[in-house]
Amino acid sequence: MVFKRLRGIFGGQAAPTEPAPPLYGLDAAETDRIGTEDDPLRDFEAAMQRNEEAERAEQNGDPQRAVDLYEKSVAEGFVGSHPYERLASIYERRRDHAEALRVCEAFLQLAASGTMPRGAQRRADRKTPEMQARAERHRRQT
To answer: Where is the composition biased (Basic and acidic residues) (predicted)?
Structure first.
């Protein structure tokens, strides 16, 4: 399909006139959300930079800075599991089971919401059993 388009663009055989496929396999509802307030990837790059900064803070011995940055990602409903896992891990090291449970439940709620992009949802589905076990462990300890 891609090669057909490229041939049509660069002078190969003319591509037959067929309706354009959905943008990167997204359905109509997903493409309609792009750039709106409901777009789960809105400000994704800024959030990724924030998560990288949090990782550096952790590595440089400033866990409170990392917590503050990860908390912001969790509050915004970041679509990746990394800030949830790292933040829960920090709270576990501090033996703050109530906060670790809150973070695990935030991830589980996001994963069950059905608002994540398809790829992020698949990753979240793979992480869900581990996060459920983690949450259960913290429930028993609170």
So the answer is: 122-135
Question: What is the Cα–Cα distance from 56 to 63, expressed in whole angstroms?
Answer: 10
pLDDT at residue 136 in the model: 97
Amino acid making up residue 72: K
The helix (run of H) or strand (run of E) holding residue 53 is helix 44-59
Distances (CA, A) of 44 to 2, 13, 73, 102, 135: 27, 39, 10, 23, 26
Residue 30 exposure: Cα atoms within 13 Å on the Cβ side: 13
HEC states along 14-52?
CCCCCCCCCHHHCCHHHHHHCCCCCCCCCCHHHHHHHHH
39: closest CA among 72, 83, 84, 77?
Answer: 77
Series of mean pLDDT values for 10-residue runs along the chain (142 residues): 59 54 52 54 77 96 96 92 96 97 97 86 95 96 86
According to the model, what pLDDT value does residue 23 have?
Answer: 47
